[in-house]
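Check these lines:
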Amino acid sequence: MDYQTRVEEWLQHLPEGDALKKELENLLGQETELEERFYQNLSFGTAGLRGKVGVGTNRMNVYTVGRATQGIADYIASHGEEAKQKGVVIAHDPRHYSREFCELAAGILAANGIRVYTFPSLRPTPELAYMIVRLGTVSGINITASHNPKDYNGYKVYWEDGCQVSAEIAGGMTKCIEAVDYWKDIRTSSYEEGVAAGTITVLDESYDEEYLEKILGLAIHEWEELDLSIPIIYTPLNGCGSIPFRKMLTRRGFTNWMIVPEQEMPDPDFTTVGYPNPEDPKAFALSEKYGRENQAELLLATDPDADRFAIEIRDPQGNYIPLNGNQTGYLLVNYILEGRRSAGTLPKKGAMVKSIVTSTLSSIMAKAYGVEMFETLTGFKNICGKIPYLHEHGYTYLFGYEESVGYAACEEIRDKDGISAGMLVAEAAAYYKKQGKTLWDVLEEIYATYGAFAEDEPNLVLEGIAGSKRIGRMMEFFRGNLPKEVADSKVAKVIDYLNGYEDIPPQNAIRLFLDNGSWFAIRPSGTEPKIKFYFYSNQENRAEALRVNQQIKEEILNLIQTVE
């Protein structure tokens, strides 16, 4: 079906007075915009749905969310009555229409005879992931667009293991969704009536307490070993993190911290930050202001659904330095391994997990402690999805992470968790402060001990139909023109994951290793209109590593951007 036919269909079926119909009528004659909105159905993959909010089959709205939910209900029903009675737990973030989409999904699932659990208000993504395991539900849904700009929303889907759905399950759900007619097949009921009838259960605060206890149980060092007066600034970037993060800091005993007041409360427009991604140093502007005023040693931030987490630390000159996801990962890997060994709790067969595009420095660190580092594809459905394998083979899971500021320290929370990562980083800072060291000192020690690495993870944002096609051409061009030499060093090895590699399933990613201790990777994002790059170099000293990495980055980006 072409986009014009879809436009006509929606004009015919949208009821009079519907805000989406008015929006569509105002777009008539704007063919480029109409094509962007209707050229395809919003793609449902292993990350669920994600897109801009508005009218169209390629947008997030009550019709696309309703169709997806009915398809998922049909998929669950195909697993029998037991799966329906296990039910689905649903959460949401503070974005525009998140609560409405949450209640819509709950009503549709309940109308299909599926038990539903919801929360009374917004909750972090990692709490939703934990509740799937805790409640024993067959699935989970979180209405969130994570760190995307304000005009986006999304629909993350999980399965009974607490991880986001695998490619196989997503494929089965997609078939069911594609069989649903927007206008005829969706069975729905009132959210309020479902709550009153008991088909929808609203979880009370005791479940929040259980989630928090799981996080507090990750503590490595006792209070007397920590300087809990360390000055800390935290920002939830107007998202879900404020309440659980505040409770965590208080219960862990920290006494000298504050939340950025302008970013404490939920704000779907993210007025004070714009792009609410803690991976972007610009998100720390207000944190730095309050940090300077309060002489804070550590700045912490979570994204709107509190699964991503990033930090800034002070250098010897007192400047705030943003750490990339790899560097924060080094600190966490080091703290967990060092702390476990000193406490005598480092297992004989310990395991950590990282993605294929995350720095190999952490693998060197793990090996030094007798811990095996496993690699998976990107995404925590893969990282946390490795946990059952580890159990089957006698390993003890210690930690999982990837460079895009995602960290999973608790094996019962099967997704990245900014709250638990925040606790461990704050605890590490307090522990080292007691010893007269800063996190900057520790990072320098890591480089001196395990190798002088440099890390850089740039990306190119290419939106819409044209952007998607250009990303495809870039990947095709690069595969067809693999460089034999980069930055005066020869390419020693190429791994193309397009058809899988060893025990790693297929992904549209390619990785090149140079003979000078450097490597880099390229892949399209699975959740955003981006092509992502990952550059790593290990040299005799940090300055040389940074220089070499910069040269590699410039050559590769210059090459790829020749593709129109």
Summary: The chain is about 40% helix and 20% strand.
